[in-house]
Design brief:
This protein is about 30% helix and about 30% strand. The chain is an alpha+beta fold. It has a five-stranded antiparallel beta sheet, covered by helices on one side. The protein has a four-stranded antiparallel beta sheet with strand order 1-10-4-7, with no helix packed on it. Strands 12-13-14-15 form a four-stranded antiparallel beta sheet, covered by helices on one side. Strand 14 and strand 15 form a beta hairpin.
Length: about 325
């Protein structure tokens, strides 16, 4: 009779003992959330001990293994992505060193693609009274600046009178140019012109000493410097009566820019050329009878026929100095208001 001692032999396959409480299995599950690699290690050790003792593997150890592998894989994936993004950022801002040529000569340094733009003077002029400058050429984008100053002479200022100063481009035909129009004891400023390439000249109507400088960015052609400014149409030697007569001739011919230069700018009350010109929109013709009463004053009687056929009459005086009308005292004596 053969007796088998089962107490000293491990159970056969399929008849394993139930899992026992295992600290390693618990540690595997806990560590899987915080240190996944330890969760994997403790899970494998717990399973190895269970196999050796003939017991079922602990569910906690199996869960710890699964979670440990999952979290370890996610950590590795995040690390790879972060490293790749960091390398891309560094590669986008870094400047690679140029490869040296095969010869022993040093590599040529790259030249800048374009030089910084610099301010360029196209024209300088200075004078006193009415003048027309030399022509200057504006290229490129057509942007340029006109820097101006004016200062009445001491004898003119001593009379307590403000001086008139105005600048026009191309005899007032350049609509891109915002005409400086001043009446005072002196001043300075800059007129900005944009997108007006071509050849231009400036007309100065002034009762004061003045300076003009035209500048543009480099790359735009310069014209010859204005060494001697040319006198404007109304010569300072013209009599006050001739100035007033010519003023009304220009108004009748609708040469408003010329009339503006002969004194309209001083009679506009600071409203500007376009507003002053619009005041003659309903005037068909003007008849002015003038008499020069002294060196600066011209008396005038005016008959103005309107576009609707009505007639307005005026009487008064003009004060003329330096080739232009500088003041007026005119009263309406008849016709509709």
């Amino acid at each position: 009779m053969t007796i088998t001692d089962t107490a000293t032999q491990p159970p056969q396959s399929g008849n394993k003992l139930p899992p026992a409480r295992d600290g390693l299995a618990i540690a595997s599950l806990v560590c899987a959330f915080f240190v996944p690699i330890l969760g994997i290690i403790f899970g494998h050790v717990s399973n190895h001990n269970a196999n050796k003792a003939g017991r079922e593997k602990s569910g906690l150890a199996i869960a710890g293994l699964i979670l440990g592998y999952i979290f370890t894989g996610l950590t590795a994936l995040i690390t790879v992505i972060a490293v790749a993004m960091g390398a891309s950022s560094v590669g986008g801002t870094a400047t690679a060193s140029p490869a040296r040529p095969a010869s022993s000569a040093p590599a040529q340094q790259a030249q800048p693609s374009a030089r910084p733009a610099k301010l360029h003077t196209l024209l300088r002029a200075s004078g006193s009274g009415n003048y027309t400058t030399a022509k200057f050429a504006v290229g490129g984008s057509g942007d340029y600046d006109v820097h101006w100053t004016y200062q009445p002479s001491a004898d003119f200022a001593s009379q307590g009178m403000s001086a008139n100063f105005s600048v026009q481009a191309d005899n007032g035909n350049d609509m891109q140019f915002n005409d400086p129009n001043q009446l005072g004891q002196g001043g300075s400023g800059v007129a900005h012109v944009y997108g007006d390439a071509g050849t231009h000249y400036l007309t100065i109507a002034s009762e004061a000493d003045w300076t003009i400088k035209v500048t543009a960015m480099s790359g735009q052609p310069a014209a010859p410097q204005d060494s001697t400014a040319q006198p404007f149409q109304a010569a300072p030697a013209a009599s006050p009566k001739a100035i007033v007569d010519r003023f009304y001739q220009d108004l009748n011919a609708h040469h408003y820019r010329a009339a503006w230069q002969l004194g309209g700018s001083n009679l506009s009350g600071g409203s500007g050329y376009r507003t002053w010109m619009a005041g003659y929109a309903t005037t068909a013709s003007i008849n002015a009878s003038t008499v020069q009463t002294n060196h600066h004053t011209v008396s005038v009687n005016i008959t103005a026929t309107q576009t609707d056929g009505s007639i307005k009459t005026y009487t008064g005086t003009y004060t003329v100095a330096h080739g232009a009308i500088i003041a007026a005292n005119i009263t309406q004596t008849g016709g509709p208001n």
